[in-house]
Amino acid sequence: MAAGLPDLVDCARLAEDAVVLERVYALGDLPRVQDLLAEPGGTLHARFAFAKAPSGRAGAAVAIRAAPQLVCQRCLQGFAFPVSGGSDIEFTNDGEAAASDAEREYFQVDGGMVSLRELAEEELLLALPVAAMCSTPQTCGHAPSLAAQAPPDASGEMRRPFSALQELLKKT
């Protein structure tokens, strides 16, 4: 983020003036994303278009795009995962009001102030997969196949490491 630009903004004032803000954040500076990254490099581009929502509350259209280096959950290798997403949200000070209207997405604010970085980070987390996988299993990280990992023994049969456990279970 450029020096001198505030992170905490008054969402009601910005919505009243229909302000559009753009920010760029280093992915390594987003604490809730850090554990998902293979490498901390890269940036998150965020655009916030503030406006009054139909309910009269302050709202914003939030759009993000990034290409974080995620860790594949199959091969444990890093890979680029281009992502873009967006939401139309409404700001609220009252958590109960947000829970009563399931048609809209709400973002709870404290005293009418919102952190743009937290809002962008939340949108990125919503756009990322629960379990990141780089490609099809056959080419994923160029990992060796299961047959190559467990070679047959001298008799040509596949080794069964848990066969002794199976025999113990039969006895009980």
Overview features:
single chain, 172 residues, 5 helices, 22% helix, 10 strands, five-stranded mixed β-sheet, alpha+beta
Brief synopsis:
This protein has 172 residues and is an alpha+beta fold. The chain has helices at residues 11-16, 95-100, 116-127, 146-149, 163-171; strands at 8-10, 20-26, 37-39, 43-52, 58-66, 69-71, 78-80, 83-92, 105-108, 113-115.
Tell me about this structure:
This protein is α+β, with helices and mostly antiparallel strands. It has one domain. The chain is 22% helix and 32% strand. The strands form three sheets. The protein has a five-stranded mixed β-sheet. A three-stranded antiparallel β-sheet has the order 3-6-7, with no helix packed on it. A two-stranded antiparallel ribbon has the order 1-10.
Spatial extent as radius of gyration: 24 Å
The global form is elongated
Overall residue-averaged pLDDT value? 81
Beta fraction of the residues?
Answer: 25-35%
- Order of strands side by side in the largest beta sheet? 2-4-5-8-9
Separation of the first and last Cα atoms: 64 Å
